[in-house]
Amino acid sequence: MSEEPRTLLKPVSPYPALLIESGSEKFLTISDIHLGWEANLAGEGVHVPSQTNKLLRRLERIISLVKPDCLTILGDIKHTIEKIELEEWRDVPIFFESLLRKISCIKVIPGNHDGNIEVLLPEGVEVAPQQGIVIGGAGLFHGHTWPDIKLLGCETLIIGHIHPTVTFKDPMGFRITSQVWVRAPCDRPTLVRSTLKHYNVRLKRDDDPEEILRAKFSIEPKVRSLIVMPSFNDFLGGRAINRASISRDVIFKDFIGPVLRSGSVDLERAEIYLLDGTFIGTLNKLSMLE
Ligand SMILES: [Mn+2]
Predict the structure, then answer these.
(1) Nearest Cα to Cα of residue 254 among 240, 270, 271, 269
(2) Which helix (H) or strand (E) holds 245?
(3) What is the spatial distance between Cα 227 and Cα 290, in angstroms, rounded to a whole number?
């Protein structure tokens, strides 16, 4: 059997961006841009200038810095879900046409906000399946759907969708909110069992789901952890994952997406990192002071 090239995951500190190095190839990965988000606020009487240019300049800076071969975006390019707002008709094509002048390989994995995204993307931008893609030992998908079965052969699953933040109160009573990275251990047999079940693969009570995956799909199950990326658009609201006022169960139910709801991801023991790389503890130690 040929040796797989090593896959290295490097957060591009202090940005909400991840560099995936697989063999000699470099993939820059970001998630949740939500272009047109501020236009939605205008409907509520709050007027915020368009963030598109700021986000574009920031992304171009990161591309110049790390010189990736390819840019992968884990979904939620635009903000409105089904229909397309006027601002998105304008901003989404401009955003990607400018990016294509910097980098010729761009892959988009659609998120739940990306209905009809194809019509907004210029030629040259590849739209991948919602069930995700494999880059070396990393499986990438947005997080609102089940991943493709082949992603179970990756050591690390990487999703967006949740926009994780932590919130603390300082001694003066001020609230501080920071975007964070989440890296949670996975219970592999449970994840394999629930994914196979989703794809209607029949399992008897004492079947070993990992054996079935090997036998029926020729996939060696390898998933060990799941990474939740911070949103690239830092202007958005986030999900304070350390809220103590409601029970953990409620928070977990609130974690939208079938993989997080399946009970196979141990969020209690998830490691939480700030964007500058500081490890601030595991989630069960980070209750918010209220
Ligand atoms: Mn989403």
Answers:
(1) 240
(2) none
(3) 27
Q: How far is the CA of 118 from the centre of ligand 1 (A)?
A: 17
For the stretch 70-128, pLDDT in tens is: 999 999 998 877 677 777 788 899 999 999 999 999 999 999 988 889 999 999 999 99
- What is residue 74's DSSP assignment? -
Q: Which residues contact 153 (CB under 8 A, 6 or more apart)?
A: 134, 139, 219, 220, 221, 222
Inter-CA distances, 38 with 33, 54, 116, 138, Å: 12, 13, 20, 32
- 240 pLDDT band, cuts 50/70/90, is confident
- Report the percent of the chain where pLDDT is more than 90: 66
Ligand 1 centroid to Cα of residue 154, in Å, is 22
Identify the helix (H) or strand (E) that includes residue 162: none
CB 259 within 8 A of CB 147: yes
Q: What is the identity of the amino acid at 223?
A: V
Kindly report the backbone phi and psi dihedral angles of residue 247, in degrees, each rounded to the nearest multiple of 5, phi listed first.
-70, 155
Q: What pTM did the predictor assign?
A: 0.92
DSSP string, 35-51: BTHHHHHHTTT------
pLDDT computed for residue 278 by the predictor: 94
Dist. CA 255 → ligand 1 center (Å): 11
